[in-house]
Write a structure and sequence with these properties.
This protein is of the alpha+beta class. Among the domains are: 1-190, Immunoglobulin-like, CATH 2.60.40.1730; 307-437, Neutral Protease Domain 2 (Neutral Protease, domain 2, Orthogonal Bundle), CATH 1.10.390.10; 444-541, Aminopeptidase N, middle-beta domain (Immunoglobulin-like, Sandwich); 728-864, Zincin-like fold (Alpha Horseshoe). Bound molecules: tryptophan and zinc ion. Tryptophan binds at residues 117, 119-120, 256-257, 259-261, 294-295, 317, 373.
């Protein structure tokens, strides 16, 4: 096992290239044979041997130009072929064991079907190869299987098929687009098939095929319709057309992540394909559409233009997340999308940046690549692309994108190449902006404001500061686009004297910038970071009155929502500092008015009635005493529900359920209704509302809304039992049920989870089950995970030790909350580190867990 970190700076171009790959895969559960014929060419003047990557392979035969070749060495992770030839054909035959592949990387069996997952470095578990994204080859693949696997799929177009004498059959596929091996895919099984067609802008007909488990056809229509919307959108917004005759999507139950963009043959976690009224929530529908679009958009941003090396991952992921976010905003609503993504940034990305795993969107050092599919690379990466979009404006951004494809179609490139293409479209010098790619950590923006009454001048100083992070001690000022409004208590907008704020945007490219506004009014309110214009924290000096001014008068709806979040945070802080404190009646009456005033704007109202999560509250605090913060939050939620009961109840009753449809208005109504129900359920007299909704719900959003609301009530167990009976047959619905159990802050929660892990539908081998039960506990049952006696930490650790032996990738994700101990009080910290040390001492620990755990523990000694 190699525990050596690879460094971005050590990149070397490949010593050999592989122009064509001919693969023949003869499927067998425990002894699949893979024959690979490679055309290889030496690059440049050197005499080094050919070193291929391989993992868990049994070499059966090796031939060079048709002759048996014996001059080679095998090691645990490589096959070194000694030859002085510059150009040759290599024949490699290997045997692999898909049935015992529980890591779900390479070729494995998922519920009776064969499928592959090669990103990032899974192809080396299928055959010896140059497993790196800058080696692009044209693939011809023959899949051979028996009659239990009538459907045999791979990338590109089918070019041949037939029967073999031994009763097996085969299909041959050819993909004309050169691609790195991480985009290779193979699927074999017996599925229900949904077909459709799409005519591209230039008139080409594309066959669309969606493969789902038998009997689930009805749940596939929405995904297929989403695919067509995504294809159309990419033509309209980016001028990008699909480039093969066929586009296939396969849904499988055993999958480590969301989905995978293999060329022409996407493989999906079934959770992001299957959706119908009875069993899928509005959120599920939303996610299906977003993930379908994400993988489709990769066809250009990822596949046609790919990454030179894995340090450049954000080149494709940040950009593709940005593209799917823009798509979702166009399909649904810009505001709720923005809020959703900002919540992800604040709850998860800021936490990552404050931990030992902090890294820039283009990391410098990696031990296990799978650990770097992070919220930083993906979501902060998307925020950086969004800032390009803000700085250039939509037209020039599009020009930059066009130029990027013009220059790099068919190539494996770097983030610097992307920046250079964007630079070609704008006069703005982007060299300082590019620091977002190399600097980790969350910048904090501060605003100082003083008023010179005599002169009638308001002086503003905007400053930035980035705390040192685990990976990087020195920080410099970033180039930050800060959207700003300056308003007074009537909503009137003011301009700065210096003209630094242009079209509502101020570029903070120094440690601090000052500007002034002339006005005799004392009540000027600065409104910062409109639409979350940069992935930063804002230290807001405003009092409750200022926050209410923003809520009432700011033009930016995101700022209005954010002001409410800050207001709640202030109230919770008061209770955190002093449990006997009371929230003043004036605040409740202001809130009541605010709610009343938005009763016709259910979208904003619904989001404003969500009290910041515990995870969000953690981002602005240190030395956190978990129980005390959770109590303060609960106390606030209870008081909120009690004091605003009548206004909430009125709105709740006024929201017309109507007949079920899935459209934007209906989604907004259901969202608002369920957010309110969760608050109302905190008062015992409203429990019947929860029961009624549960009983009459004709869709999963309302059923689950009622169940979630019942978490604070005495009817929880009873409703959960009913729900289990109703849905025992549907694993994706049971995942929701597992997660609700796992997030209950019961005293006997650990016993409950242990019992549930023995549920007939639960299996440690299925990542969806593990994430919903163990992952939900670790990430979202903060009260019990952080129990002061350390029992929650120990429980998760015990589980991870078992899980790591079969699926390290998933284990390394679930360990995340344990590695983020820095924000908590000493008692928590030492109990968390004790468990991390247990992990580190475990013999046979995967490199996935080793990397995260060792970093987390090392941070300790470095900082103390
Ligand atoms: N490239 C995929 C995406 O973002 C995600 C991915 C990376 C993945 N590694 C994976 C998916 C491993 C499944 C398993 O769309
Ligand atoms: Zn992606």
């Amino acid at each position: 096992m190699s525990l050596q970190a690879k460094k971005r700076a050590d990149y070397q171009p490949p010593a050999f290239l592989i122009s064509t790959v001919k693969l023949t895969v003869k499927l067998h559960p425990t002894a699949t044979r893979v024959v690979s014929i490679l055309s290889i060419t030496r690059q440049g003047e050197h005499s080094a041997p050919l070193v291929l990557d391989g993992n868990k392979l049994t070499l059966i035969a090796l031939k060079l130009n048709g002759e048996a070749h014996t001059d080679y060495e095998e090691s645990e992770n490589t096959l070194t072929v000694n030859t002085q030839r510059d150009s040759f054909e290599l024949y490699i035959e290997t045997e692999i064991d898909p049935q015992n592949n529980k890591a779900l990387e390479g070729l494995y069996l998922s519920g009776g079907a064969y499928c592959t997952q090669c990103e990032a470095e899974g192809f080396r578990r299928i055959t010896y190869f140059l497993d790196r994204p800058d080696v692009l080859s044209v693939y011809t693949v023959t899949v051979i299987g028996d009659s239990r696997f009538p459907m045999l799929l791979s990338n590109g177009n089918p070019i041949d098929k037939g029967e073999n004498a031994d009763g097996t059959h085969y299909v041959t596929w050819h993909d004309p687009h050169p691609k790195p091996c991480y985009l290779f895919a193979l699927v074999a099984g017996d599925f229900d098939l949904l077909c459709d067609t799409f005519i591209t802008a230039s008139g080409k007909q594309v066959a669309l095929e969606l493969y789902v488990d038998k009997g689930k056809k009805d749940q596939g229509h929405f995904a297929l319709a989403s695919l067509k919307r995504a294809m159309k959108w990419d033509e309209e917004v980016f001028g990008l057309e699909y480039d093969l005759d066929i586009y296939m999507i396969v849904a499988v139950d055993f999958f480590n992540m969301g989905a995978m963009e293999n060329k022409g043959l996407n493989i999906f976690n079934s959770k992001f394909v299957l959706a119908e009224q009875a069993s899928a929530t509005d959120e599920d529908f939303f996610n299906v559409e977003a993930v379908i679009a994400h993988e489709y958009f990769h066809n250009w941003t990822g596949n046609r233009v790919t990454c030179r090396d894995w340090f450049q991952l954000s080149l494709k992921e940040g950009l593709t997340v940005f593209r799917d976010q823009q798509f979702s905003a166009d399909m649904t609503s810009a505001l709720s999308n923005r809020i959703k993504h900002v919540r992800v940034m604040r709850e998860h990305q800021f936490a990552e940046d404050a931990s030992a795993m902090s890294h820039p969107i283009r990391p410098e050092e990696v031990i296990e690549m799978n650990n770097f599919y992070t919220v930083t690379v993906y979501d902060k990466g998307a925020e950086v692309i969004r800032m390009f979009h803000t700085l250039l404006g939509p037209e020039k951004f599009r020009q930059g994108m066009d130029e990027y494809f013009r220059r790099h179609d068919g190539q494996a490139v770097t983030c610097d190449d992307f920046i250079a293409a964007m630079q070609s479209a704008t006069e703005t010098d982007l060299s300082h902006f590019a620091r977002w790619y190399s600097q980790s950590g969350t910048p904090q923006i501060r605003l100082a404001h003083n008023f010179d009454k005599e002169q009638g001048v308001h002086n503003f100083t905007l400053s930035q500061y980035t705390k040192p992070t685990a990976d990087q001690k020195e920080k410099t000022a970033l180039y930050i686009p800060v959207a700003i409004e300056i308003i007074d208590h009537t909503g009137k907008q003011y301009q700065d004297e210096q003209g630094l704020i242009k079209d509502g945007l101020l570029i903070l490219d120094k440690p601090e910038i000052t500007f002034t506004v002339s006005s005799h009014t004392e009540q000027l309110t600065p409104v910062l970071l409109g639409n979350f214009s940069a992935p930063s924290k804002v230290e807001n000096p405003l009092d409750i009155k200022g926050l209410l001014t923003i809520f009432t008068h700011a033009h930016d709806a995101f700022n209005r929502w954010d002001a409410m979040q800050s207001l709640y945070d202030r109230c919770i802080e008061t209770l955190y500092q002093d449990t006997t404190a009371e929230i003043s009646p004036a605040i409740w009456s202001s809130l009541s008015q605010a709610i009343e005033s938005e009763k016709n704007n259910l979208e904003l109202l619904g989001e404003c009635l969500v009290i910041p999560s515990f995870e969000t509250l953690c981002q602005s605090r240190e030395n956190i005493e978990v129980a005390r913060l959770i109590n303060a939050r609960n106390q606030f939620c209870d008081a909120f529900a009690a004091n605003l009961n009548s206004v909430l109840l009125n709105i709740f009753k006024g929201i017309d359920g109507g007949t079920y449809v899935y459209n934007q208005d209906a989604v907004i109504s259901r969202r608002c209704k369920n957010v309110i129900l969760a608050l109302l359920a905190r008062s015992a007299e409203n429990v019947s509302l929860v029961e009624t909704q549960f009983k009459h719900a004709d869709n999963m959003t309302d059923s689950l809304g009622a169940l979630r609301a019942s978490q604070h009530t005495c009817v929880f167990e009873q409703l959960m039992a009913k729900f289990e009976q109703q849905w025992a047959h549907d694993p994706l619905v049971l995942d929701k049920w597992f997660a609700l159990h796992a997030t209950q802050p019961n005293d006997n929660i650990l016993a409950t989870i242990t019992m549930l892990s023995e549920h007939p539908q639960f299996s440690m081998g299925n990542p969806n089950r593990v994430r919903s039960l163990i992952g939900s506990f670790a990430f979202y049952n903060s009260e019990k995970f952080h129990a002061l006696d350390g029992s929650g930490y120990k429980f998760v650790t015990d589980y991870l030790l078992k899980l790591d032996a079969i699926n390290p990738q998933v284990a390394a994700r679930i360990v995340t909350p344990l590695t983020q101990w820095q924000r908590f009080s000493e008692t928590h910290q030492s109990a968390m580190k004790q468990q991390l040390a247990r992990l580190l001492n475990h013999s046979g620990l995967s490199k996935d867990l080793f990397e995260k755990v060792s970093k987390s523990l090392a941070y300790d000694s470095a900082s103390s």
